[in-house]
Amino acid sequence: MTQTAPQFSAEVFPAHAAADLARLGRTIDVLAALQPDFVSVTYGAGGATRDASRAALRGVQAAGVPAVPHLSALGASREAVRALLADYRGAGVSRLVVLRGDMPSGLQGLGDFAYATDLVHFIRQETGDHFHLDVAAYPECHPQARSCDTDLAHFKAKFDAGADSAITQYFFNADAYADFVERCAKAGVHAPIVPGIMPIGRFSRLVQFSEARGIEIPRWIRSRMEAFGDDAASIQAFGLEVIVRLCERLLAMGAPGLHFFSLNDGERVAKIWHALGLPQPPRAPDVLRLQGDALQT
Ligand SMILES: Cc1cc2nc3c(=O)[nH]c(=O)nc-3n(C[C@H](O)[C@H](O)[C@H](O)COP(=O)(O)OP(=O)(O)OC[C@H]3O[C@@H](n4cnc5c(N)ncnc54)[C@H](O)[C@@H]3O)c2cc1C
User: Fold this and answer.
1) Three-class secondary structure of residue 167 per DSSP
2) Which site among 21, 142, 211, 266 is 20 to 30 Å from 196 CA-CA?
3) Three-class secondary structure of residue 193 per DSSP
4) Number of domains the chain is built from
5) What is the CATH number of the domain that holds 22?
6) Residue 11 annotated to the active site
7) pLDDT tens, 251-264?
């Protein structure tokens, strides 16, 4: 591992409608107050969210937080990526999360990059060591992979192409993460692999989301959640307890940080952050005022 201090970060997605913009703005404010190492902004494959992602990135920067754009390979041309890289460099961005992406239905054509590895390789060719590159990892195996072994080989290829570190898909089983990190080390991947953490909000939504991504929700969590019925307060309290315990275990195991998928609900991340006693240095209040204007596309 090349990283020493644990890294704590969060992720937001771009907003289009006015109500979503207000929610994104609030989320950035709440996350910024936590002073994370960075806030990353998702990017839809095929470039569908390009302008909204760029606006969200400006909002994060205006809040005084290092902003990290995601970049999705599918549907992108070399020219389009070259232009994005120049734009990001010009905006002072020094880190990217590089993904293959999932093509939205109806969109045709893979573009110039079939896999995340191809995009990592291209970014290194074009910009040398300018960007720190994160890639995605799947402790429970990527759902489209032929086997966990081939998935691991493909994961390693992203580092051979020039990736620096990884952020995982979310999971609820700390042993799956420990096993994955061990298998990576045996395969020669010693870079930091930061667990992605999904706060538990609406349980039915989480079930849907997890099924689509091949993520296992342990039976004991399902049973407890189902037993709460419509009791939203108990669901929230239990969800918080489960995630805080998972994070504590991961940090005790030596995880090099945590990356929170906020789903644009900053409060939920803040509750976990505070329960874990994560660092929260004082900050200047005036940066928050700048951020509202920056979010406009
Ligand atoms: C932290 C995180 C952030 C994310 N952010 C976004 C986002 O902003 N936008 C978005 O659209 N999606 C995002 N995703 C979702 C991600 O794009 C999907 O999970 C996607 O299905 C895979 O992306 P990847 O970068 O892992 O792909 P890859 O690493 O390219 O792998 C995809 C699949 O292809 C296989 N594979 C890789 N290389 C080869 C090869 N040479 N030959 C054959 N098979 C191969 C792998 O084993 C795997 O099954 C994110 C995921 C994570 C974990």
Assistant:
1) strand
2) 21
3) strand
4) 1
5) 3.20.20.220
6) yes
7) 999 999 999 999 99
